[in-house]
Structure formats: structure tokens, C-alpha cells
Amino acid sequence: MKRIATVALTALAPISWGSTYAVATELLPPDRPLFTGVMRALPAGLLLTALSRTLPKGEWWWKSAVLGTLNIGAFFPLLFLTAYRLPGGVAAVLGSTAPLFAVGLAALVLGERAGLRTVLAAVVGVFGVSMVVLTAQAKLDLVGIIAGVVSAASMAAGTVMTKRWGRPEGVGPLAMTGWQLTAGGLVIIPIAALVEGAPPTLDGKAFLGYGYMMLINTGIAYWLWFRGIGKLTATSVTLLGPLSPLTAAVIGWAALGQSLNAVQLVGMAIAFGATVAGQLVAARTASQSFSSTEEINRNISIDLSDDEVRR
To answer: What is the pTM of this model?
Structure first.
């Protein structure tokens, strides 16, 4: 039951990210994705760092910079470049490949050996998302495809390395989230200034949109995401990724007047089913691992008892 609650809370992060497109198109200034990235990450990072009242020490200055770059600083600009160069559906499919990268990286870096069922769940998830978002008119662009693949790999690497390095003793996920968002926002600032120039003039709608993006879509969402990484396997966390494009499709239908046909509905069911199946496989693997550890400890205890008897 505790694991189910952890998975459910972690899933709120990609669900929240699924609202990004609707908020950006309805409330935010057009053609300023990098400025939006800064406004999402930096204020939220500074706020969470202030709330935690904890700064990095020693090696955690550069580790936070690396993690912040992978999860935010590189991921956001690459994601926006993908969105500019490719139709939204193609970009969403490329983004949904992150679990596949995570499976490979987790095996290499963390020793998390993914079984065939886990890999199959990740592949089926990508297939389901493609049914929801791809159209026959989708056009491909090499730069956009490369940016999309690298952004998915960057997010997967950030998730795996966050799991690999863990947290300093006595430091909670709130501080870690604040450090990474701050570092990532600082990385994006010079890119945004070079590409987009001076910040735009903001109206009331923009302040509302950026407020939501900063507090809910980024601050709380990434805190839940990094909290989940600390409690679940890296692969299990990234398998929740398809919930983001699925949420975007539902919001587009419910709030923006977009239609959903039968193929898209089937794709949503497939992607959601793959996400659930992936979590069930991960839960079973974790349970078996715990049982194995428990058996080893029990055998050690028996051996020690026998040794005492022999003495």
C-alpha cells in the first residue's frame, strides 16, 4: 500500500507536465519558450532552497549543477527546440522514449537489470502514445529528431544519476529539488538572452500562467518526481512518463475543444495499460528482491545461531 501511494504521488508530476502546452498557449507570451523555461525553474528553485534553508556543501555544488543541467538546463531548451522543429505529436513520441533510455542507463550505472516485461511495457507505452498524438500529416526534421532524442536521454540520465548519487545525509528532497531547479534555471538564462533577447512585457494572464508553472507545474511537480526517485527504482519512475502526453490529450479535448477519435482512444488505453503494467512488474521485482534479502538475513542469523550452539 505504501508503494502504491508513492507511485500515485510521483505520477502527479508527469500529469502536471501534461498541462504545460495548454497553459503556454492560453496564458503565456508566444514564441518565448526559453524565457518560460527560466521562469519555470529559477524562481521555483530559489523558493524551495529558501524554504529548505539548506545550501549544497562540498562536492554537492558540482553534483547539483550536473543534475540540474541534465534534468532542467539541457532538457528544457532541447525540448523546446524539438517542439519548434517538429509537430507536437512527433515531439511527444520522442519524449516518451525516455523510459527506454532509463532502462539501459539504470542497468549500466545502477545495476538495475530490467526484465523483458519491463522493456516491453516501455515499448508498448511509446506505441500507445504514438497512436494518440501522431497524424498522417506529421513532417520529420533531422535537427528536431536529434533534439528530441537527446532531450529524452538527458531526462533519463538525470533521473538515473539522481538515483545514483542520492542525497547528502540530513538533506531532504525539498532542498535537492531547489538546488537542481536553481542550477538548471541559471544554465538557461544565457541561452534565452542570446536566442530570444530581452524579456517580454507581461500582463495579468501571463503572471497567472507563470505562477502556475513555477509553483505547481515545476516546484511541486519536480519535488514529487525527485521524492519518487528516492523511493522507487529509476526505471519505475520513468515508466510514468507517458502520463504526460496522455494528460495533454485529455486537456486538449476537455478544455481546448480538440477532438479524440477511436484510434486515439485505443492508443490512450494502450499507453495507460502499459504504464500500469510497468509499475506492477516493478513492484513484483522489488518484492522479490526484498524477499531475497530477507532470506539471506535469515540464513545469516541461523548460521550465527548454529555457530553459537557449536561453541
So the answer is: 0.85
